[in-house]
């Protein structure tokens, strides 16, 4: 598959097979992520990978509890309040792998650089038959000093992205994502 096909067929995956992603594949995805362009060649990224099902479930439960208790501080998540209250809902959608990307704040461009790394990972995942999804719910916990300390993330690193990866179940595997036209395109001559 060429890059244009990959971009045109990439979609957020929220339904996965109960199948682990092997550590070599995860390592390759992260390596491909780090091929992204960086400002001043800073390469400010750091990664935490969680594949333990118990830890992923515990993290999901902690995120849901926190967001429900503090929903007023997250008005953009209010529309998902019923999901967050559902004991069967996982903010990680049953994915077997969570990849958390942090940026070293000593680089002014760390947010951009790490977002580009996340994009590389998301596009590369299709090569391995994997689906991915950026998980906004996780920022409330994955950015805390407690979480960062538990996973040996230096204080100078800030959360940029939390994403999930896994093998899509059959109902999502070949669906094409619908897209809107760009809101504004302006060409100056």
Automatic annotation (TrEMBL):
InterPro entries: Nitroreductase, Nitroreductase-like, Nitroreductase/BluB. Pfam families: Nitroreductase. Residues 7-167 form the Nitroreductase domain. It comes from the Bacteria. Keywords: Flavoprotein, FMN, Oxidoreductase. SUPFAM superfamilies: FMN-dependent nitroreductase-like. This is Nitroreductase. It comes from Clostridium aromativorans.
